[in-house]
Sequence to fold (80 residues):
Amino acid sequence: MNDRIKELAKEARLMTGWPVGEVEYQKFAELIVRECIQNIRDNMEIAKVDTLGDKDLFLETLRTSGHFYITELERHFGVE
Fold:
């Protein structure tokens, strides 16, 4: 388990030493999905900064694809 996953598990209260239930597992899953969405958003922001002349169409396609995947992840996992 990488450090970020451990941090998310702690935030979801999975690593307290106490028994965990459905609420904690749902929170953990939600945190992972939100992390994925944020990663896509961050990469879309990098693409905006790197816009140079002829790359406009490519970067617009990248941004559009990013928005599609964010929406699809949110819909699929029920995270808004």
